[in-house]
Amino acid sequence: MPGTEEGTTTRRTFIAGAALVSVLPLAPARATPEAMAAAIKEVVGDNAIREGRVTLDLPPLIENGNAVPLTVSVDSPMSEADHIKAIHVFNEKNPQPHVFDARLGPRNGKAVVATRIKLGDSQKIVAIAETSKGEFFSASADVIVTLAACLEDLT
Description:
Layout: H1 5-23, H2 33-44, E1 49-51, E2 54-57, E3 61-64, E4 68-74, E5 84-91, E6 98-103, E7 111-117, E8 123-131, E9 136-147
Parallel strand pairs: 1-9, 3-9
Antiparallel strand pairs: 2-4, 4-7, 5-6, 5-8, 8-9
């Protein structure tokens, strides 16, 4: 019955428990280099990944990790017979190691993707291009972040 002592106690217990959970310090979820390697393996399988053809452009030193400019370009004729099917980007310390996939086709004309990403810490970024022939090419860059995104203390 609403308003009974039993109902009030249950609400109080719930509110007190919720307040306790909200003030407990939680360790931020982070990917690891191993998690990044596993995410890359999910995309490429057992195929070889070769260096080259991919250019990963992002600043080596970032003051604020909330909006890091990133451009990936791939040397490709972008013809029907030989084009870039996808560009995959990975990181080793953000909460999720697989940042994004961009799907492309010969009508794109150029294999270039530009965006901004959040970085939770200084880390390695890896870009992998997947060709229409089933080949994989990569480039990587180390980025130093002085003010991390995703992990800022809001207290």
